[in-house]
Structures are given as C-alpha cells and as structure tokens.
Design a protein that fits this description.
By secondary structure, the chain is of the alpha+beta class. It contains 21 helices and 40 strands. A seven-stranded mixed β-sheet has the order 28-32-33-37-36-35-34, with helices on both faces. Strands 3, 4, 5, 6, 7 and 10 form a six-stranded antiparallel β-sheet that branches. Strands 12, 14, 15, 22, 23 and 24 form a six-stranded mixed β-sheet that branches. The radius of gyration is 37 Å and the shape is elongated.
Amino acid sequence: MKLPLSLIQSFINIDLPVQKISEILTLLGIEVDRIHNEFPSFANVVVGEVLSARPHPDADKLKVAEVSDGVHRYTVVCAAPNCRAGIKTAFAKPGALITDSDGLQRKIEKSSLRGVHSDGMLCSASELHLFEEPDRILELPHEMETGKDLSSLLWDPVFEISLTPNLGHCMSALGIARELAAALQKLIHHPKTALVENPKIHLQDKIEVAVQDVKLCPRYMCRLIEGVKIGPSPFWLKRYLEDCGMKSINNAVDATNFIMIKYGQPLHAFDFNKIEGKTIHVAAASKTQKFLGLDGIEREIPQGTLLISDTRKPIAIAGVLGGENSAVSSDTTALLIEAAYFDPMAVRIGSKKSGVRTESSQRFEKGIDPAGIKEALDAACQILLDVCHGTLAKGTIDEKKHPLAPKELLCRTDRINQLLGTKISQTEIEEIFQRLGFKVHNIGNGKLRVEVPLYRSDVNEEIDLVEETARIYGYNNIEKRPALCTNSQIPHDWAYLFEKECRKRLVALGLQEFLNCDLISPKLADISHEIKAPHIAFLHTLHSKSEEYSVLRATLLPGLLQVAKGNIDQKNQTIHAFEIGRIHFLQNEKVIEIPMAAILLTGKTEPSNWSQKSRDVDFFDLKGILENLLESLNVKGCIYQPSQHLSFHPGRQANLVVDGLTIGSFGEVHPSLLEKFDIKQRVIYAEINLEDLAARRKAIARMAPIPSFPASDRDWTIPLPLAMPIQSIFDAIHSMGSNLLEKVELIDLYTPENGSQKNATFRFTYRDKLKTIAFEEVEEEHAKLTNQVSKLLAK
C-alpha cells in the first residue's frame, strides 16, 4: 500500500522528518518498506505560463514557446503536442536540476535546437517523477501562482507500507493517522463537509433499496447526484491516485477511489440511468448466472454469491467488482453512490468464486468501519460535486436493521504485566487505551472494561489488548532480561541432522539452495507422469485453495525446471543450485514420503574472465560435485552404472550405486522435456534418495598419519571398445588385490572421430608402508597387474 504524507497530514498535525515517521510506524508493527520521493527530485523548477506557441521554422514536431515566470519572458523549444498558449506548466529554467530515470541529476543548460535558441525546458510529469505521462508536458491548475517554486507545491513523500492480515484498519490514510496519533499523543481531526442538497429532488422518490439478508449486509447507504459531467480528473486528484499506485479512470471513479484510500471505505458509483426499475436488491444469488465485469471479463457467478441487482439483472458483485451494465461513462449524467458494510466472509467467498481480487475486496475482507460509512459517503459526494459538478439529491438512504454497538472486553492489568514482563501502572494502561480510541471503565480490583471501536475488527479478546499495550508502550521500552537456558531432553531427529549436514556440504560446493512448494500444478504433474515410475500414482489434495497447488510432487525435477526457466527468462542463464525436500506418491495403495536431494546445473562453469574462456557445464561437472559430496559424507564404494531413465538424454546418464543399492541418478535432462519448459540450453540434473544415502554412510573417518615413505607412479594406456565403461577397468584392477597399489585414477581419455576404439590412460600409485619401495619391485608389480587386467578384459 502506498500513502502520500500530505494525505496522512489531512487527519493529523505532524511535523517530523519522513524517516522519523517511518521509524515510528515500524515500531508500531506497520512496516515501511520504502519511502518514495523522500527528497525533491528536482530543483529550481517553477510554475511557468505559456504565453504563445508557434511552429518551429525547421522542424515539424517542434514548437517555439514564449514562457513567463512572472518576471521575465523566455524562449523555449518544446516537442510536446499539448504545448499551447494559456496553459501553466513546469518550467525548468537554466541551472535547474532534474533527476533522470537512473537516479542521476542533470543540470538544465541553455541550448539551441535546429537553429532556435532555447532557455530551459518544459517538463512532463514523468520527468519530475510525479506520475507516468511521458509524451506531454505537465498541465498545472490555473490557480497556481506563476513563478512559484514547484518543489514547495508538489513535493510529497510517499510511504510504501506492508501490512499484516490483522491490520485491516490501517489500509487508509485515516487508519495510519490514528496509529501515529496514538504513538505521538496527538488528536485526530476529521475534515468537515458542508453538503448543499437540492430540496426539489428527494432521494427516496428516486430509488428504492431492499436488503434481503441483513447478516451479509448489515448496513447499506447511497446518495444521488444528478447533472454530472464525466471527464478527466483534475491534476490534484490524478496525482494522488498515481502516488498511491492506482490508474486514473475518470473524475467520478477517481473520486470514489480517492475516498477509499483516504478513509478505508470502498465505494462504488453506478450510472443511475442504467438501473432498471430504480430499485436496488442486495441478496445472495439464487442460481448460477453470467456477469460481465468492469474489467471486460465475463464470469460465471455461482449460487450463493452476494450480488447487487436491479429489477432485471445483477449490476455488481458485492464488495468485489462492478458490472459493465451499470458502469460510469462519458454519457453518464446521474450517479448513484453506494457505501456499505458487507460481511467479510461473504466478500471473500464472492472474490474467490469470481476469481478476482480488488482493492475494495481486500478492505471488506479485513473488516471496515461500519460507523464511518456516512462520513466517507458525504466526503465522496463533496468531491464529486467539486469535480463532476451536478446537484445532490436531498436525503440519504441508510438501511440497517440492528444498532451498531462497540465490543466490550474485560482486561486485567496484572495479566498485561505478567505476559509482557513489565510494571506498567493501571493509569498508564488506561491512557494507552484512550490514545487508541478505546473507551475505558475502571471496575475495580485491577480490572478494566474496554469498549473497542467498530473499526478495530482485529481486537476481539483480552490477549489482543495486551498486544495493543505492547505496541503503544513500545517493544523497545520493554526490559530485556537474560534468557533462561533450557535444554530439551529429546535428541534431534537423525533425518533433520543429516539433511542439515547435506545442505551445508552442498553450499560449500558452491551451490545455491532453491525452495519449492511440495504442491505442484496439474500441468507439471502431467509432465512428471511421463518420467515417473509406472507403478506409482500421484496424490491429489482434497480441498485445494488453488489449482496451481493441487498435486503432491513425485519428483523434484519439474519444480526446479520451472524455477530455472524463470531465471533464464530474466537473463540469469547460469544456475548452480540444489534443493532438499520430500516427494510423495502412492505405491501399492500405500502413501510413500521420501526425503530427496536434487542438484541442477545449467549455463557456464564459472564467470567470464579475460584470461580464459568459460565453458558450458556438462555431465562430468555434476559427477565431480556428487563425488565430492559423497566423499565429504564418508560414503564409500560408490560406482556409476549406465541407466535408461526417460527424463535424461540417452547415453548421458547414470545411476549412483552403493553396496548394490541404487541411491540416485543423474544426467543431462532430455531435450524433449526441456522443450516443454521452453528452455533452450543444456540442463544437468541429479536426484538422490537421502534415506538410502544415510543408510550407506560409513562410520566417522579417523585421522591417519602421513605416509613416511615415498610413492612411485606408473602410467598405463590401453585401447578399449567405445561401448566399454571405464568403471569396468577400475573393477578389474581392484579385483587383483595388490598390497602395494595405493590408488588408481583415469588421467586421460582420447576418442578418435571415426575410430571404433578409445584410448584410456590410467595412473597407478604404488607405496610400501614399511620401507622405501624399490624400482624393480614397482616394475614387477605394475607388469603383473596390467597383464592380469589385460587377460581379464580379453575374456
């Protein structure tokens, strides 16, 4: 939510730096994410009056304007199509400072455009960072004094605020002003409205309102304005809406949106002449029906949705969205202004069923002030009369069946101090409640009866009053006592500890952790269906809140590919990532849940460097990461066997096998699968069963002394068939059982382009732990090993 400072100041006199106001709000639990326009984005820009505008003699799209600052006349070349005599605009004289879109300030200098001298610049709203209107110069109200510094007239810091769901009463300038008033011990002042009604037009003679379900709509009010003129909004109104992140529609709609932002009361303006039968019905839909909304989308509204209807058709989904069939247009001459209190649950159901969420529905869902409806409606009518003109019908329709009474809660002062660890006196607690607008009655024995105003729908129990006390007293004023050390007697679960260690090892290997939801969409499930094992089935949620999260994942791959696609689309094309999570599926009518670790590599192996070129990641980069992971976890004897998984490229995949058990698989993701995600670069992926991995983990490795005697190396190159896996050579070598062989490793592999064989070079390291090994002894042992391996392979 965005709120300009001036709108807050319309309710409270506050003269503090914007940064200090931000700190106060944050301490109250109202987080200020950002302050827009904290300082003026321009300097020495004044109100200029265009005295004349003639075509440029040497450019069709340029004009030469004579501009006055109230004292001197200037010649300015301008390209804006709305540059004309008689308007007032933003004039940046030579020496003025304008902030570019990249945040850098530039100084306006005298210049010459196509042979015509130009003394300064006429500015658009975009160039002054007021609102988006890049192709036109800013048109200011004619009442503004020519030559006046615009920074004093237009500078208005805007707070961007994040609200938790319980702070619905803060979704307006009035709500924020109330919070600041409580914190600063100031009074709230409400702007007065002096409406002039036309005694010849009586509202009750013009419209009839029938509320059929008072539980869903406890209060419904409306007023009528005739003779209106619909058109663009004035500058001040348009600017307020742009500052608050809303688009200007027309003067009538903008006025209702402005009141919603200012008072927190959603309003709706109907074209009165489009209401058939001149009757408003407020009732739940008795059947499923079609509804064309203001956004141009036709929706099917199910039975039970709360609707606003005339005698023939629905004209609005209550509290959510107006209908196209009663929308305000340039032909509208009469406005019926609706202000109501709808049941939060009814609005939420209507919003969910219709599939649309609006600024209005968000406020109704969190609860508005039923006692403040009349004030907001009158304020809206006043603005509509100012910007749309017309005459206001006499009287107000106010349908409410039950009196609106505030909630009463019992509060114990000793309970407040017990929970907060404070020693706040009862008098101070009473003062805090009064500053919040609560009425307090002392009933003795340290007990208070607190009347909570209707706009505080979040305060329902004594514990809520405790929280309010803490907020206003100040969390930073509560004494911090040394924490009592308590140790749980229950040890950590092994799975938690093992996953934590795996996470630490993977981060150490240079991977970034990704987090995905266990729930995926049916579309991703369909993709998963092609690559999962045929004997397992998906698990579907019974009551999913969204179709996008309705199926439990049976593999981590689709979710990670979706995240990779999003990153690649944002030009982040190199990703080295992992995820640790659970997969779920149904096997033999039994629900299975397995912790898994997945690794995804795509893009380059390392950042670009002037001294060497970076290459694309491949199968062996991932294999190296897996080897390092297994070694760090002390998992011994892992071998890599060819596999036939549908999700991987044929010939570029393998299974991880430890002690005869396949604990995972990895390889290059199949191009057909990447095509479904529109990923146009290689992706290397691995997925490991953490339960099986933990079960194959050996005891903690022990330290060993550094060898006292030197080793001796021998290299051996052997021709092999192209299809023969290198692992078979290692298996053959280790099967010989040499006491002198310390290790063997592959150091080179050469495959001719058109050959039928490949040449593999191995390095053998020999060492005797008891003495220095002799040259002859190494030669003999090496010859024996290579001959036996050659014979074994020849079979």
